[in-house]
Amino acid sequence: MSILGLKKKQPKTFKVKVITMDAEMEFSCEVKWKGKDLFDLVCRTVGLRETWFFGLRYTVKDTYAWLKPEKRVLDQEVPKDSPITFSFLAKFFPEKVEEELVQEITQHLFFLQVKKQILDEEIFCSPEASVLLASYAVQAKYGDYDPNFHKPGFLAQDELLPQRVLMQYQMTAEMWEEKITAWYAEHRGIARDEAEMDYLKIAQDLEMYGISYFSITQNKRDTDLLLGVDAQGLHIYSPNSKLNPNKSFPWSDIRNISYSEKEFTIKPLDKKKDVFKFYSSQLRVNKLILQLCIGNHDLFMRRRKVDSIEVQQMKAQAKEEKARKKVERQILAREKQMREEAERAKEEMERRLFQLQDEARLANEALLRSEETADLLAEKAQIAEEEAKLLAHKAADSEQERQRLEVTAMKTKEEKRLMEQKMREAEQLAVKLVEQSERRLKEADHLKQDLTEAKDAERRAKQKLLEITKTTYPLIAAYSTPPPPPPPPPPEAAEAGCDAASMRLDFKDSDMKRLSMEIERERLEYMEKSKHLQDQLKELKTEIESLKLEEQQQQQASLYSLRGDVRQYAQPHYAQPHSNRNSAYMSQMAFFEEV
Questions:
Q1: At 573, is the pLDDT very low, low, confident or very high (cuts 50, 70, 90)?
Q2: Measured between alpha carbons, how far is 25 from 87 in angstroms, rounded to an integer?
Q3: Mind listing the pLDDT tens digit for each residue in 338-372?
């Protein structure tokens, strides 16, 4: 076996991972590729033509370095990992972003990088500017603000403000979102590239924008300083202040920059001015500083010259592209407006359709109701006609009833007249009875007086008889023998005397009995007549009550049978007689009760 066969075969390619601001890409590179080959591959993949602003950066030990285009990739101090990781970032920044950044992809990459530097606090930004920049970032990401779509809390997952700003004020995430949304709503109609450009135009005015800082020391006093390199020139800062430089060297005033190991020399264009020297801690850092100075100076000089044909073509194409996009946006805006108008018209037509449908439904319901109403009116008309016939019949009945009531009233008047006549007869009879009773009382008094006189006469006669008897008994005793009887009277005389005495006694007794019998008979007759008069009065009272009850029943039956108008028609004919009859009946009743 030969020695050549024992040698390990070297790989012809190696893996590379390139991280941009919004994507990650992996490439398989040849071993002999230089940095320019890999850089051009990345630019072609991204679609970037403004390559002079960007570079491939990698990490080496405690600092970073940029991939050199003229040297092979593997010959540089790149990491030995597989794949080798590079970051595709902006190495140089423009002075005026609106004039120098031509391609939209270039603007987008710068926007993402500057936004990340602000959020990472590599670029200082005030709270007010941070909120304004966040609103443009939201406009670039979400488009126009729509309150129906962008509900509260839609920015909860987005990192929009530096942590220093959030800690500086005691405000909740909802309060910050409300402030950002208020600005965001003002950016309506701004396209994504325009919002990103507006973001960069505000960011380029920040003090730390586009500056790369390095720690240096001065040779005389060995003072720690900061060197800032940007598109404008070189700046010297105090370690604790990166905002306001202590000293600046514009590129237009610098004649030459050189370094020897760790020493840097800045020679001004004005030979009368002193040469500025400073030292850095590492040789690698010196190389990086020199790289940045050369690149920024070249771009500075390039901006002051006429643009190359490539740049002019790119600007022309970019201008045409912007004009085309502007026209497209205008067309899109018009279409959007027309679509919104169409949607509004559609909504209006739908609303109108719904309204017409509602109106049609209401009209149908109204038609149905009108038909039902017409049917009801027809039924009511038929019922009204029947009621009219019934009312006419009722009117005829009420007229007959009125006539009957008039006849009844006439009969009632006749009955009233008869009752009044009976009352007068009863009054006359009562007067006669009173007179007869008075006369009978007077006769009774006379008879009582006669009876008393008769009783007195009888008492006197009895007394005389006793007296005669008493005078006769002594004479009989005196004479032992009775005297000779007188010659008897003639029989006719004796019978006459006895008859006279008996007639007187019988006369008295018969008169007494006769008087008593006559008095009793008169009393019985008076009682019979009084009873008969009371019976007549009761019959008259019962008849009056029956007449009243019958009249009330007739009135109730008439009122129930007639309607209101018939009742109004019939009422005047019998209302007045009824009241008159009631008053007459009441007066008669009062009179009979008194009797």
A1: very low
A2: 10
A3: 888 888 888 888 888 888 888 888 888 888 888 88
How far from chain centre, in Å, is Cα 204?
54
| Interval 3-33: pLDDT, tens | 444 445 667 888 999 999 888 999 998 889 9
- Rounded Cα–Cα distance for residues 386 and 365 (Å): 30
Please report which confidence band the pLDDT of residue 335 belongs to, taking 50, 70 and 90 as the band edges: confident
| Cα three-residue angle 319-320-323, rounded to 5 degrees | 85
Check whether 483 has a pLDDT greater than 80: no
pTM: 0.58
Long-range contacts for 562-570 (Cβ within 8 Å, ≥24 apart)? 562/394, 562/397, 562/398, 562/401, 563/391, 563/394, 565/391, 566/391, 566/394, 566/395, 566/398, 569/395, 569/398, 570/398, 570/401, 570/402, 570/405
- Tens of pLDDT along 248-257? 889 888 888 8
Tens digit of each residue's pLDDT (9 = 90 or more) over 465-479: 888 877 655 544 444
What distance in Å separates the CA atoms of residue 592 and residue 427, rounded to the nearest whole number? Answer: 10
Structure tokens at 101: 């950044």
Residues facing 87 on adjacent strands: 19, 57
Q: How far is CA 289 from CA 110, 242, 279, 299, 510, in A?
A: 21, 17, 11, 15, 190
Distances (CA, A) of 133 to 103, 117, 189, 447: 21, 13, 17, 152
∠ CA 103-106-108, nearest 5°, is 110
**Is residue 83 reached through a cis peptide bond, with omega within 30 degrees of 0 on the bond before it?**
yes
Compute how many other C-beta atoms are within 10 angstroms of the C-beta atom of residue 169: 9
| Rg of the chain in Å (alpha carbons) | 76
| CA proximity to 169, closest of 119, 128, 123 | 128
Residue found under tokens 């038929």? 382
Q: What is the secondary structure of 248-266 as a DSSP string? A: EEEGGGEEEEEEETTEEEE
- What is the spatial distance between Cα 421 and Cα 415, in angstroms, rounded to a whole number? 9
Kindly list the strands in the beta sheet with 263-268, ordered across the sheet, starting from the edge strand earlier in the chain: 247-250, 233-237, 224-229, 212-217, 276-280, 263-268, 254-260
